[in-house]
Amino acid sequence: MPYQLAVRGGASVPAGKIVAVAKNYEDHRREMAATQGSGAAWGSGAPGDVTPPADPVVFLKPASCLVGDGGAIRIPEGLANVHWETELAVVLGARLKDASEEEAMRAVLGYAVFLDMTARDLQAEAKKAGMPWTLSKGLDTFGPVSEVVPAALCPPWDEMRLKLVVNGEMRQEARCGDMIHRVPKLLAYLSRHMTLDPGDIVATGTPAGVGPCKPGDTLEASLPGVVTLRVRVEG
């Protein structure tokens, strides 16, 4: 049965595909580029990554990775470097195909906070071999997501902020408006290349401050004043 996205004040909706965007905050793009050739155990930056991407960099995560508020991220045995990435998630309420930016924004059901968990060791190995790194992003429980807050109850997307607190310590904080490719552009761009359906989630990228978690950690991600997501990490 498809994962059911909780919607504040309304009926849940079945989750569709998760379309995620990489390198969409300049500080994080620089953060990852700096790991290339640095000897870092989780170095997974791309060689020659010196400028912001001209077009959105897109990958997919399966809906089977989703877990809700109060749930657990489970790190499989043998993985040593699982990182958090806190993101604004845009949830679609209508079908989009070849949409303008204005049409795309009218199709938004609401917003959530999302954790794009990433197995950096798997990602780095795949990138080094020139292979896809879907597995590093798509493991079960590697997509914690909050309830969806209807767009009418939220501030404009670019006025919201992202925040992550790990074990009581601030680890990520940024303005959603600092994205390289902004939400209207992302939705319109995606709709030209793939149909977006109701329940699809667009995860819009993470700012700097990604880092490793371990069993026993507690992660609290939020769009302050809008919604909060709390999950624990298990081995």
Short description:
This protein has 235 residues and is an alpha+beta fold. 17% of the residues lie in helices and 32% in strands.
Helix content: 10-25%
CATH fold-level topology: Fumarylacetoacetate hydrolase, domain 2
Q: Quick one: how many beta strands? A: 18
Order the strands across the largest sheet as they lie in space: 4-3-15-8-9-12
Give the percentage of residues in beta strands: 25-35%
Structural class call reads alpha+beta
SSE order in H/E notation?
EEEHEEEEEHEEHHEEEEHEEEE
Number of distinct helices = 5
- How much is the radius of gyration in Å? 17 Å
Provide the number of structural domains.
1
What's the CATH architecture name? Alpha-Beta Complex
Please describe the biggest sheet, giving its number of strands, its sense, and whether it closes into a barrel: 6 strands, mixed
Q: Which oligomeric form is depicted?
A: single chain
The poorly predicted ranges are: 37-44
| Morphology call | globular
Features:
5 helices; 235 residues; 6-stranded mixed β-sheet; single chain; Fumarylacetoacetate hydrolase, domain 2
Task: Describe the protein in words.
- Helix content is 17%, strand content 32%.
- The chain is α+β, with helices and mostly antiparallel strands.
- The protein has a single domain (4-234), classed as Fumarylacetoacetate hydrolase, domain 2, CATH 3.90.850.
- Strand 1 and strand 2 (13-14) form a beta hairpin.
- The protein starts with a strand and ends with a strand.
- 43% of the residues are buried.
- Mean pLDDT is 93; it is low at 37-44.
